[in-house]
Amino acid sequence: MATALLVIDVQMAFVARRDAGQAWANPAADQAIATLLAAFRAENLPVIHVHHHGTDPRDDFHADAEGAVVQPCAEPTAGEPVFIKHGSSAFIGTDLGQYLTDQAISGLVIVGGAANYCVESTARMAGNLGYATTVVGDALINFAQTLRDGRVMAAADVLALTLANLDGEFAHVAVTNEILTQIAA
After folding, report:
1. Which of 77, 166, 171, 175 gives the lowest tally of CB atoms within 10 Å of its CB?
2. pLDDT at 185
3. 91 with 50: CB under 8 angstroms?
C-alpha cells in the first residue's frame, strides 16, 4: 500500500489575501509545499491535487476567478490527478476515495490550505475512513480568524488549535523535515 502527497487548495486566492495584508501563520508554507512536491516526485511517489471551485460567481475560488488559479509552487504535472471540490472536504462530491482505493493508497500526507477549513475537514474524514493520515504543519496556509464575540484569533493560534484538534485523533502532525527524512529512508 502506498502513501500519497495530497495537495489541497494551493490557489492564488490565498496569495491575494496575503498580499492584501492578511498574514499567513507559515510565511514559508509555499516553499515547504514545493519542497515536498519535489521530494515525492523525485521518488516517483504518488501526488494528488485537490482544487476548490466555489459555486458563487463572487467567490474568490470560483472557477472563473483569478483566485482559482493554482499557485506556481503547486502546479500539477502530467499524470498527477486533480480533483475539483465545491465544499470543504476533498472526499465529498469527488471521486477521491475511489481513486485511492483503485491505486491501493492507504496513507495520505496532507499540505495546503486553509488549515482550519479544507485541510482539517479532509484530514478528519481521512482519519475516520481509516487512512494513515499525516498533516504537515509547516506546509499549511491559514489566516487569523474572527471569533463569534468579535475577538480576533491570531493566525499562529488558529494553526496551533487546528493541529491540536487533529493530532493523535485523526492524524499525525509532522513537519516538512520529518517527511523528507521518511522519504529518504
Report:
1. 77
2. 87
3. no
Distance CA 149, CA 141 (A): 24
**What is the DSSP code string of 103-134?**
TTEEEEEEEEE-IIIIIHHHHHHHHHTT-EEE
Distance of CA 130 to the CA centre of its chain: 18
Residue 152 backbone phi and psi in degrees, to 5:
-110, 125
Torsions phi, psi for 11 (to 5 deg)? -125, 165
- Residue 170: what residue type? F
pLDDT tops 90 at residue 1:
no
The amino acid at residue 62 is H
Q: Are strands 152-153 and 145-146 parallel, antiparallel or unpaired?
A: antiparallel
Stated pTM of the model:
0.97
Q: In the structure grid, which three cell numbers stand for residue 124, read together? A: 478528519
CA dihedral 171, 93, 79, 49 (to 10 degrees): -40
pLDDT digits (tens, 9 = 90+) for 5-62: 999 999 999 999 999 999 999 999 999 999 999 999 999 999 999 999 999 999 999 9
Identify whether the C-beta of residue 111 lies closer than 8 Å to the C-beta of residue 140: yes
Question: What amino acid occupies position 185?
Answer: A
Q: What is the pLDDT of residues 119-161, one digit of tens each?
A: 999 999 999 999 999 999 999 999 999 999 999 999 999 999 9
